Amino acid sequence: MLPSRFPSPPVVPEGGDAQFLRRLRPSRLVLPVLLGLAVVAFMFRHVPLAELGPLLHANWYWLAATLLVLAARDLGYVYRIRHIAEQELTYRQALDVIMIWEFASCVLPSGQGGTGAAPFILNKEGIPLGKALAYVMVTALLDNLYYVLMVPLVVAVAGAGLYPHEALQTKFVASLQVAFVVSYCLVTAYSGLMLYAIFVNPRSVRRLLVRLFSVRGLRRWRRAAYCHGQELVLASAQLCHNGWRYWWRAAVSTAFVWTARYAIIGCLIAAFVPMHSGTFLFIFARNITYKVILLVAITPGGAGIAEGAFPTFFGKFIGSVALTSFLVLLYRVVTYYLYLVLGSLFLPRWVARIFGRPSSPE
User: How many other C-beta atoms can be found within 10 angstroms of the C-beta atom of residue 100?
Assistant: First the structure.
């Protein structure tokens, strides 16, 4: 799951069940799959098979650790959404929500991710739309706060090595640094705005957004700004009075799932390349900047871009081009293609279960 840093409006308008299902139809998988595989095939074009010898000496403990981290991450997501939704979901419902959310993240552009579809999914599970919006905004807020708090730590760990100086020209590294700093400042400012709106004065934030987007040149987004402000008002009414236990468990589960998500690449590389703990932490830190590239990707699930950027950020830790190309493919299999398959299995069952009974009132 790669929720957008700035939550987007639901992709489904009122009464848009058919439209939502059309956006997740199997034919939409063809382009991202072909694009991603084409990039990997291009990387393999001049790779001698003899250079893939290290694959025969894989460390199976690290491969098993990768699978355990993946499973722990998904179970953490299931726990988190069920807790944030105040136990209004059963574990089965929470699992369906997470799998379809992940699937939506794979077939929709990375900038939007599955966040736009999540309120609709929760609403179809019987949660009123206003509360569903509030719950999704809580996940977005906590995701943003994890990013805001983690960046200073990874900068302390990696320093200048946070950026791939060894693989990019100086001007491109400078551009990446600017993009990273701007992204961090925007996320920090937006997180502060969300905290103020939910816990202090949501209506003043709604007025601020409307006034901001009333400026000439931004007026076409004024209605969306008002809707987003209204979502903050609803979220505040629903959640601001929850006790510290609610927020503590939500925060800890968020830290758990995102730490597991960022650790996957390190586990995969460690399965084929011996490393010490310092290198593992360095890879974890660089993963933060790698995800900034994926956030601005316009392709579904970052297909093509994720594969192309991987060697730039992590090739230094792997060594040979052949092994790097293989790890690109393996990484996308366990973090992207796996969820295309799981989503294709969960979605028909979910549709049969949901649309076989009356939907909740919106």
Answer: 25
Contact 51, 272 (CB under 8 A): no
Q: CB of 55 within 8 A of CB of 222?
A: no
Count CB-CB contacts under 10 A for residue 80.
23
φ/ψ bin of 67: left (φ > 0), alpha (ψ from -120 to 50), beta (otherwise): alpha
Q: Is residue 257 part of a domain?
A: yes
Largest CA distance in the chain: 64
- State how many domains the chain has: 1
Which residues span the domain enclosing 133? Answer: 17-167+243-354
Summarize pLDDT for 149-195 with one digit per residue, the tens.
999 988 888 887 788 777 676 777 788 888 888 888 988 988 888 88
Query: For residues 66 and 330, is the Cβ–Cβ distance under 8 A?
Result: no
CA distances from 251 to 122, 148, 244, 308 (A): 20, 13, 10, 33
The β-bridge partners of 300 are 109
Question: pTM score, two decimals?
Answer: 0.84
